[in-house]
Amino acid sequence: MGKLDGKVAVITGGTSGMALAGAERFVEEGAHVFVMGRRQDVLDTAVDRIGRNVTGVQGDSGDLGDLDHLFDTVLHEKGSVDVLWASAGAGEQGRLGEITEEQFDAAFSLNAKGTLFTVQKALPLLNDGGSIIMTGSNASLRGYPDWTVYAGSKAVLPAYARVWVSELRDRRIRVNVLTPGQVSSPMMESVMSDEMKTQFESVIPRRQMGRPDEIASVALFLASDDSSYVNGMELVADGGTTVI
Fold it and tell me: Angle at Cα 213 formed by Cα 125 and Cα 209, nearest 5°?
């Protein structure tokens, strides 16, 4: 018997990296998963990789109309949601003094606004006792140079969680932030040079970046009844980077 048997999960940004690994793990544990991604070709590849009990929905999590389409699809196909993982996010480097308005708007539109409205638009479909997970970043905890905007756009998520726990307590909906550290993923590979990767790995106690499947295991914990007494928390999975 799987830990998510009969459950319906929605994962935004679920077409690559740790969120895709999470989608695969959720399906293995018995869930039907709706995966949202911006690029149709990448979305199709992800759906093929997951293989079963999956519905792909093309869209941008920073676009409220696309979010409406996502949850209309969920409503018509399954009727309700048990697990929502708002994982869509992006960022780029920008040193103070050189940050552009376009960089700020792009990061906050997706990471802060997109996450908030993903949750808000899912709320009518969320079953009582459900689980909301948001993907944070240890960039908001450690102060990496050149990552001001990305760190700031992720730092709002624990504040959301604390407020929403209070607002949703009568429905017993749990809200937690999963905050990974450096994880080998297409997004990380696209923004990191070999020198930067070596620098990041040097601050991880095991001297090795995380794997998507390691984060997927943490997401499964937060999605399932295993974490029934975990609420309003920021669970950091970064190999100990932020404590040394």
Answer: 125
Residue 49 per-residue DSSP state = H
- Give per-residue pLDDT as tens, 196-213: 778 778 888 898 889 999
Backbone angles phi, psi at 174, to 5 degrees: -90, 145
Give the C-alpha separation, 19 to 49, whole Å: 13
Measuring CA to CA, which residue among 24, 11, 79, 88 is closest to residue 51? 24
pTM of the model: 0.94
What is the distance between the alpha carbons of residues 59 and 8, in angstroms, rounded to a whole number? 19
Catalytic position from the list 144, 150, 160, 229: 150
Q: What is the mean pLDDT of residues 54-59?
A: 98
Reply yes or no on whether 150 is catalytic. Answer: yes
Task: Report how far residue 212's alpha carbon sits from residue 239's, in angstroms, rounded to the nearest whole number.
Answer: 13
Are 151 and 97 a contacting pair, CB within 8 Å? no
